[in-house]
Amino acid sequence: MGWHKKVLRVNLTTGSCTPEPLNMEWAAEYLGQRGLATKYLLEEIDPKVDPLSPDNKMIFATGPLTGTAASTSARYSVITKGALTNAIACSNSGGYFGAELKFAGWDMIIFEGKAASPVYLHISDDHAELLPADDLWGKSVWETDEILHQRHQDPRLRISAIGVSGEKGVLYACIVNDLHRAAGRSGVGTVMGSKNLKAIAVRGTQGVQVKDPVRFMQAVGEKKQVLADNAVTGQGLPTYGTQVLMNVINEVGALPTNNARDVQFEGASNISGEAMHEPRGSENKPNLVTNQACFGCTIACGRISRVDKEHYTVKNRPEYWNASGGLEYEAAWSLGADTGVDDLDALTFANFVCNEQGYDPITFGATIAAAMELYEMGLITDEETGGIPLKFGSAEALTKMAELVGKAEGFGKTLGMGSKRLCEKYGHPELSMSVKGQEFPAYDPRGIQGMGLTYATSNRGACHLRSYTVASEILGIPEKTDPLATEGKAGLVKAFQDATAAVDSTGLCLFTTFAWSLDDFQPQVDAACEGEWTLERLSELGERIWNMERQFNMAAGFTGKDDTLPKRLRKEAAKTGPAKGKVNGLKVMLPEYYQLRGWDEKGVPTAETLQRLGL
Amino acid sequence: MMRSLTISPDKCTGCLQCEMACSYENEGVFNPVKSRIKVFVFEQEGRHVPYTCTQCADAWCQNACPTEAIQINAQTGAKEVNEGLCVGCKVCTIACPFGTVNYNQATGKVIKCDLCGGDPACAKACPTQAITYQDANWTGYDKMRSWADKTNTQATAQA
Amino acid sequence: MRYVIIGAGPAGVVAAETLRKQDPKGEVILIGDEPEPAYSRMAIPYLLAEHIDERGTYLRHATDHFENLGIRQIHEKVTAVDGTGHTLTLQSGESINFDRLLIASGSRPVAPPIPGLDQPGVHHCWTLADARYIADYAKAGSKVVLMGAGFIGSIIMEALVERHVELTVLEMGDRMVPRMMDQTAGNLIKHWCIDHGVNVRTSTRVMEVKPDDTGIARLTLECEAAKPIQADLVVVATGVRPETRYLENSGVQIRQGVVVNDYLQTTLPDIYAAGDVCEALEWGTGNHAVHAIQPVAAETGRVAAMNMTGSNTLYAGSLQMNILDSIGLISTSYGQWQGVENGESSELLDEARFRYIKLQFEADRLVGAITLGMTEHVGVLRGLIQSRTRLGRWKEHLMKDPSRIMEAYLGATHSA
Predict the structure, then answer these.
(1) B99 closest CB neighbour out of C14, C57, C383
(2) Which residues contact B137 (CB under 8 A, 6 or more apart)?
(3) ipTM for the whole complex
(4) Where in A275-426 does DSSP place strands (E)?
(5) Single pTM value for the model
(6) Could you tell me the domains of chain B?
(7) Which residue in chain A has the smallest CA separation from C372?
(8) pLDDT computed for residue B155 by the predictor
(9) How far, in whole angstroms, is CA A584 from its chain's centroid?
(10) Hey, are the CB atoms on C353 and A149 less than 8 Å from each other?
(11) What digits encode the pLDDT tens for the residues A508-559?
(12) Where are the domains of chain C?
């Protein structure tokens, strides 16, 4: 219950689609989605594998609560070895696709091998088949979506696809479902492209059942009320989306600006959630059209936006005049503050292109920012950029490069490598604001100390979604800690990491944790899933998953030396704001963190720890 | 006082909690396909429109049914499918000009909104009050009736 | 005031009830020529498939329904009508006077002029009595030939498949349901049926049905340019025709069916017609046609009764529409699915998955449609056609992707 106990194994090399039972012993240890799929991946591939080789596998995994009436039950994750990072990749997405996969009767799809020519997977309940996608290759995510809907004559077909960037090996390509929801980070779309897999189109009519429906509905109803009553999930997120943070984070001096040279951005208010509500442009209408929920979500933080028809990016280009997925905070930061651009329409357009061609706006923005710094240093020339001056603050540079990366053309090919490889190419690896090859997002660890440890230890490369200590350090959830202090942050990070890993394995959304703790998940999971799911079991599950991911990375060749931060964050003090004069205190926090984790001083889990967790 | 489902599409976020509540209430499973209420998405406009039976006064489905399987609930005014009498001929599904009677292949019967006997699960589950259950003379209902009338091609007595 | 209704099918029953509602004091007589309570032919396939018993076919389930309404029922055949004399004659010879008469005698099945169709083992599937006969002979494993794969043949086919007979379907036309489906859809349905184990042969002409002399089966069907087919039972579903034979000297005009005006009145002022027997205004074209379908029967029964009681009610016209379930493949057709002059059409076809949708437009209005494999919200096709909704910009959307019909409907009728 909760699970369908069914896995679809798709061998792209042979073209076979084979159902197999879900390993319920593993499900009892790893629950679903992130945890369970990582277990499968660890068991089935050599972590040293080249992520773009046919030997890498890619798993689309739902959780046991995906597709139920629980709030935020939309989630699925793509688990593979990341093209950008060479580490474990686990990218989580909402929209409607994940729930539909569940309705079709599948807990997960495991892709292996590589198709000889482009294909897409069509799933209609039990019937799964690979169909030719030669005519889709070279098409954007949006075109692919339209063509497949027509081909299968079904407006409710749910589609997950890669764009041209994923086909052409942009290393931070993502997998976009339902036009603008994405499994965004670490280059999972690049892996999909390397397998010649263009899309997955699914329609399900079987539904989902839970263990104890009456108790489940009772718990679900109570927890929905908790979300409704909470200031963040009940008001802030529906009204402003994650963009509620732009002005807040700028004020606390933790908004990385101009490739993290600064921690505050003059133009922040112009690209904030509040700005999205302001009438502007030729029609005097706001950027924001409406908020939109993912499947089952009673928060509805998603933004649906429009670019002004007269804006230079879309003038005489009606294909961009429709409403589509608008700016989330991370994208607004990376495309905006980090590049010094405060033109809201330009950012929205760049974000549209990221969705249209399927690549990660966080890494893209941070890569452009690094390129702008290299350009300023005279290392990147106008000749290379095709005559486009890559200046901080240039909206034109941002939007032109967005289109080039989308098709991996011109300088877009170089930018498509991500900042780590770009900066290495130009001889300044320290200018890449990345950890384990992945760019960090919108919280400067000089202003929010815990985020430094978060980035440094994140198993999938720098990321805010592995332990969002911002909740505690800035918003006071579950209790306020001092963002400038390092004391206690090791414990905070560990607790958040473990809880997040558990949440990411349920099928529900991490954003509920502004209002919910594991105590709130527990009765929902317990009523849905067979077996007894206590709070202790959920907590331990999270820690087990974290250590398993660590094991994967170590087997892939990562060591404690990779648990670090870009030099800038450790050596160059914040110039303004509350954190003025501060660098990140990683070196204080990391040893304590290792100790709390039960890892040795080199960051290797001890035998006792592994045994305690059953690893 | 007869009450009716009132729908305010501008408040709908597209979460489909209504579809889940409906399918659970009526079929005991989380399965939007079996929901009597459906949310339609106008992607390019960012608009979501929940849509279900308006329980029209002179019901096409009921008039078209050859086996008296669609009956009026005297308390709620809902046109309800009597599963025991429905043979699954689907004539009502083509007769309803609003497309709100659907055939359920799994059971061989048709399904339509029955207002959950007077306590509609969709309205209770809606987090934004896009679906409410209120007095039939609420203005929103008049609006729905006006477009229902526009589609009304049933013969009407001439004054 | 005495109202007499000939025919106890859906049109007659709805009319009788409406008459009672409109004129509580009038005398209402409902004459049907079958011994059973009023029932629905629509339900017969489900009876044959044993999903329901005979009671499940009844139009009204309360046993005293008609008595309670004060409707007198006569189970006898009408042999003649004297329209100007306001009388009709029953088979027994009895005469009945009427002030207002409703002709709702429906259709009768017709057989093609093939020798041997009049022998035991060959049967129509039209009445409850027919169904009982067929149920007796169509046992699991018995050889059954179904002649005709039109709409009625196709729904009977479904029932025969469920009875697990060894089924062969013969159709003279080049596809299944030729009057409801175009070539593409008709062929897809045929292939679907073949895939599901039914031996379907189109463009096949039966020359003669003879007793079988091999002892393997009861009958042998000789076919043109094909091997003979043996059968224990031959079900003839080659078409129906309005039952008007008893009206020859009635004085009402008959073409294909009983001709009526926009008030469902025949050429004689006190006589009306409804249901399968009448040739009424066709919705949207201005033509008159016989539309032998359930919703039209109910609607014309009601409208005719309104007019019989003096409540001047215009009939808007009948829209051709059908829905068919062929072993799980659901198909519909609406209105002018063949298209109209100077019209436009859009279609999507996925042969491998048996999905097809074709829309016909006249300017920016929908006038006809065919769907295959679509089960949700099919009714809006009727809504869009009959409301004559101007689709505006949604026409272009539908030209590109006709499956977005529900969005177009809501967009065109619910725009903010």
Answers:
(1) C383
(2) none
(3) 0.95
(4) 279-280, 285-286, 288-292, 302-305, 324-325
(5) 0.95
(6) 1-52+117-145 (3.30.70.20), 54-112 (3.30.70.20)
(7) A153
(8) 42
(9) 24
(10) no
(11) 999 999 999 999 999 999 999 999 999 999 999 999 999 999 999 999 999 9
(12) 2-109+240-308, 122-236, 328-415
